[in-house]
Amino acid sequence: MPKIVRSEIKLDGIDWEYYTAGAGKSLLLIPAFHSDINRFKPLVEYLSQNFRVILPHLPGISNNQTLGDYDYTAKNYARFLNLFVEKMHLQNYLLAGFCLGGVIIVRMLEQGVKQPERVLIFEGIYDADLFRLQPMYRFIKKAILKLGPKNKLLNSIVDLVLHDERALKLYLKFAYSKEKNLDLVIKHQTEITKIMATRAYIEVIFDIFQTHLAKENLHFSVPTSLIYNKYDNLIDIEPTISGMQRLFPNSEVLQVDLTQHSPAGAIDIKFVHEMIKPLEDKLMQLKD
C-alpha cells in the first residue's frame, strides 16, 4: 500500500497541510465537512493504487488551523484551493469532492480554476432547501440562520460542545442514539469533531444552510461524474441530481446501493468499495 505523506504549503500567507499518496495522474480530493485524513484514509489508500492522491486539510474543519481574517465559507476555501492548484502545478488532473467538497468544487470552477480533466462529485450538496432534516436539526438550522455566525451565545454553546468532551459525548449519544455499536460511533465522532475550530464549525454550517445553487445561473462544461446514493438520509436525491445535471450538462450520474449519506462510524474499506464500484471502469480509463 502506498505510504501517505504529510506536507505543508503556504497559500497567501495562510498555512495549509495536505497529504499525498501514490503516483501517476494527480487526483485532488476535497474532503467533506467533519472529515480529515484519518476518516478518509481507506479511500485515499484505495485510490492511491492508481493515482497520486492529494488530500488537503480544510483549515478549521479538518484541523484547528485558521483562515486568518477570512470567513470559513466554500468560496474562501475555493479561493485558496485554486492557489493550491496553481502552486502545485497540477496538469491534466482529476478534481474530486465529497458533500461540502462538491460545493467547494463548484466555487473553484466559478472562480476560474485551471480546468481539470474530469470532475468527480460524491453526494454533492445542491440546495439547502433539499436537506432531509430531523426536527432537532430543523430547529438548529432555523436558530443558526436567525442568530448568524457571529452571535456570542451561539459561539459559546458550540465552543462548549466541541471542546468539553463530556458535553460532546452527551450530544453525540443523543444525536446517534439509533446507531448500532453506539460506543464505537461516539468514540469515532468525538475524535473527528473535537479537532474543529468553533468559528469554522459555525461559519461553515451557516454557509451550507445558505447554499442555494438552484438560484444561481451557473453552468460548467467540464466532463463530470455525479455519484449519489439511490436513497440518502440527508438530501432529497431526485431534485438534487436534476439540479446538479443543470450545473454540469456534460455529466453522467452513477448511483450506489447505500442509504446513509456517510457512515456514523469510521469509514471502512467495505464502504469505499460500495461507493467506488460504479466508477471503477471510468477510473481505469482516466488513470493513463
CATH superfamily of the largest domain: Alpha/Beta hydrolase fold, catalytic domain
Structural class call reads alpha/beta
Q: What is the CATH architecture term of the largest domain? A: 3-Layer(aba) Sandwich
Strand content: 15-25%
Helix content: 40-55%
InterPro entries: AB_hydrolase_1, AB_hydrolase_fold
Domain AB hydrolase-1: 27-262
Protein name: AB hydrolase-1 domain-containing protein
Pfam family, one: Abhydrolase_1
How would you explain this protein's 3D organization?
This protein has 288 residues and is an alpha/beta fold. It folds into 2 domains: 5-126 and 216-286, Alpha/Beta hydrolase fold, catalytic domain (Rossmann fold, 3-Layer(aba) Sandwich), CATH 3.40.50.1820; 135-208, no CATH class. The protein has 11 helices and 8 strands. It has helices spanning 37-47, 74-87, 100-110, 135-147, 152-163, 165-175, 182-193, 198-209, 237-247, 269-276, 280-286; strands at 5-11, 14-21, 26-30, 52-56, 94-98, 118-122, 224-229, 251-256. An 8-stranded mixed beta sheet has the order 1-2-4-3-5-6-7-8, sandwiched between helices. Helix 1 links the parallel strand 3 and strand 4. The chain is globular and about 50 Å long.
